[in-house]
């Protein structure tokens, strides 16, 4: 189901960013063409070298490729190229940006330009996840037609226990396979 699919993987600043390494690997193993976009905060958790090696593509981090040459990463092209945009982990900050049309990162611009289905895997601490602002943003994203995967409960990096964990990479891959299977059947 994922063979030949073009998947953009957005990675945000969250301790769960380490799971994006496994997600990219599983998507590539399933035959998908994967392009990773890191938010500035994500680089504190995972490296472009790791994700670029696994995706077999240079990792995109900002609007500009080469500032001196005026080369830029075309967010519109990326939004049209993809069969799906998967944001995993999706931080509270990025969720707020998406829900409110803020656009100060490449990932924000790609989201606002995307014509493909968007899937979001929230990951943050319990209090952040349960905050009414975050829940409102998640609801708004659903109203926009995005798929927001439920955040499983469990032990969080802070030591708290409850929802806020990123959906496991294997589960994300299964969700995507199911989505594309339904698309073929309909």
From TrEMBL:
One of its GO terms (molecular function) is FMN binding. Pfam families: Flavoprotein. It comes from the Bacteria. Keywords: Membrane, Transmembrane, Transmembrane helix. Residues 6-176 form the Flavoprotein domain. The keyword Transmembrane applies. GO terms for biological process: coenzyme A biosynthetic process. InterPro entries: Flavin_trans-like (IPR036551), Flavoprotein (IPR003382). One of its GO terms (cellular component) is phosphopantothenoylcysteine decarboxylase complex. Gene3D superfamilies: Flavin prenyltransferase-like. The chain crosses the membrane at residues 7-28. This is Phosphopantothenoylcysteine decarboxylase. It comes from Hymenobacter rigui.
